[in-house]
Structures are given as C-alpha cells and as structure tokens.
Amino acid sequence: MSAAAPPRAFVVGHPIAHSRSPLIHGHWLAAHGIPGSYERLDVAPEAFPDFVRGLPASGYRGGNVTLPHKEAAFALADTLTARAERIGAVNTLVVEPDGRIRGDNTDAPGFCAHLDQALGADWPARGTAVVLGAGGAARAIVAGLAERGVPRILVANRTPARAEAVAALAPGIGAALAWDDLPSALEAAGLLVNTTSLGMKGQPPLDLDLAPLPARAAVADIVYAPLETALLAAARERGLAAADGLGMLLHQAVPGFEAWFGLRPTVTPALRDRIVADLAP
Ligand code: ATR
C-alpha cells in the first residue's frame, strides 16, 4: 500500500445489507472531506478466518465486525484491548502499521458515551443499574457500566444461567436477578437498560411495569427499530429520563473511525437525523 493511497475500512457481516455503519462512516468521511472509503462486505462464516488473515495485505486499515463474526474476530485477532478481552467479543479491527491485527470492543464505551450525551456525564451516580438480557450486547454494556463506576449491577434474563455469566463481568458489584424479583429491584434502581430483543419490530413487546422506579431513574433501550419503543414511551409517560437505542449505534462507531481515518468524529444531530430518516418505515 502506498502512503498516498486513500484510507479504506469496512463493515463485515453475514448478512450485511441491513447495516447502517456505511451511512454513519460515509457521513463523517464527507463531513470532513476525507478521500477514503467505508465498504460493506458480506463474508460467510467459513470464509471469515481467511478474510482476517488476509487483512494486512488487503489495503484496509481495519473495519467493523458484526453478526455472526464477533466471537470469531475475538479468536483471530493478534492482540486484544483489555476491554475486548473481558467481553469476549470484537466489533472493531485495526491493522497496525506492523501488520498485526488489533481487536477492540467499542460497544461498551459507545453505550457509555451515548448516556453521557443523553443523560449527562453524572449518570453513574444515579445508582444501581438493572440490565435486562444476557446476550452479547449485555456483556458489553455490563463491562462498560462497571468501568464507569456504577455502584451495583443486577442482570435479569429469561435464561438465568446466562445472567450469572454476564454479572460475573462486574466482579464485586454484579449479581444475577430473578425476573420475578424485578419489581422490588426497580424500587432501588437508578438506571434500567433493555438489551433484549423484546420491543424490536416483529418481536413481542417488553412487558414491564415501570411504576416502582424512583423519579431519579433513567431508562435506556438498545432497540432502535422502532426508535420509540413501548418501554421508552412508558418511561417518558412517567416523566423519567429516556435514552434510545440509536445512540449506542452511533457512538460505538467513533473509536473505529478515529483509528482508520485519523480524526475523532462527533455524533451530531445532523448525523442522527440522517440515520433516523433511513430507519423510517
Ligand atoms: P445480542 O448479542 O444482540 O445481545 P442475543 O445473544 O441473541 O443478542 O441475546 C438476546 C437477549 O434477548 C437474550 O438475553 C435473550 O434471552 P435468553 O438468554 O433467555 O435467550 C433475550 N430474549 C430474546 N427473546 C426473548 C423473549 N421472547 N423473552 C425474553 N427474553 C428474550
């Protein structure tokens, strides 16, 4: 690769047509007049190891990794950030100048940066966080909350064993919570986060009474289609602060863009509006 070659990055998944990442990075490339590209790549699981091994010679500076490759990327990266190591999944690959491939997980800082913007940077002081769900998104979010100093993290999941495993990512402050015990846990919560797919278009709604939440509590959903889930509507109805799922998607993109294109971009209302317009039915 010549030093003057325009920087190139990608998002890789299977399928990949639905990914909004090209819109996000394309917006920033255009806004900053960077003559680079961000490409959508569909790579099947059986071809993914060769894809990663070929990156140093490909001319790509790196890219985002989405379903179903996040665990494979974790296993294939040459080095891992401490955060990716803890979470066990990689959503961002960076080809280092020496050809080694670094794996990072930017979902955790992305979620926290989103809350900083939506709720104010003092959100960890609201108190105990109750996290619903125990998939990959929950792992990243629990790690992020712990890193930011949330005093206690309770994880409730349909399959309780998975909740135990996710709570263990926050040693000393994390614990699994039985779904039936949610009402009493909500009484002492400062933050409620839905990481399940409940409430997503085509899925059943999340049926949870928010009445026990104290007035200081904020509610965050990672579902962004629809943007205004029944959960967030119920939170607003109660006068609680609410943070929608689009923010995490936008903010998780920031560290990758900075690593590949050399400039730290900002999540602006104009970017948000661009993606909201794309999500509109
Ligand atoms: P992701 O990696 O995006 O977080 P995932 O690993 O498929 O996705 O996790 C989805 C989460 O939504 C899980 O916590 C799942 O609960 P289980 O661990 O019991 O499967 C939760 N979930 C999905 N459908 C659900 C439903 N109908 N009721 C309750 N929880 C549900």
UniProtKB/TrEMBL annotation:
Ranges where the Shikimate dehydrogenase substrate binding N-terminal domain occurs: 11-93
GO molecular function term, any single one: shikimate 3-dehydrogenase (NADP+) activity
Leading EC class: oxidoreductase
CDD domains, per database record: NAD_bind_Shikimate_DH
All copies of domain Quinate/shikimate 5-dehydrogenase/glutamyl-tRNA reductase, residue ranges: 128-197
EC number from the UniProt entry: 1.1.1.25
Pathway it works in: Metabolic intermediate biosynthesis; chorismate biosynthesis; chorismate from D-erythrose 4-phosphate and phosphoenolpyruvate: step 4/7
Organism domain of life: Bacteria
Residues that coordinate or bind NADP(+): 133-137, 157-162, 222, 245
Keyword Transcription on entry: no
Catalytic activity entry: shikimate + NADP(+) = 3-dehydroshikimate + NADPH + H(+)
Record-linked InterPro entries: Aminoacid_DH-like_N_sf (IPR046346), NAD(P)-bd_dom_sf (IPR036291), SDH_C (IPR041121), Shikimate_DH (IPR011342), Shikimate_DH-bd_N (IPR013708), Shikimate_DH_fam (IPR022893), Shikm_DH/Glu-tRNA_Rdtase (IPR006151)
Active-site residues (renumbered): 70 (proton acceptor)
Sequence ranges assigned to domain SDH C-terminal in this UniProt record: 245-265
Keywords: Amino-acid biosynthesis, Aromatic amino acid biosynthesis, NADP, Oxidoreductase
Residues reported in the UniProt entry to bind shikimate: 19-21, 66, 91, 107, 224, 252
Role, per record: Involved in the biosynthesis of the chorismate, which leads to the biosynthesis of aromatic amino acids. Catalyzes the reversible NADPH linked reduction of 3-dehydroshikimate (DHSA) to yield shikimate (SA).
Assembly behavior: Homodimer.
Family label: Belongs to the shikimate dehydrogenase family.
Name under which the protein is recorded: Shikimate dehydrogenase (NADP(+))
Gene (UniProt): aroE
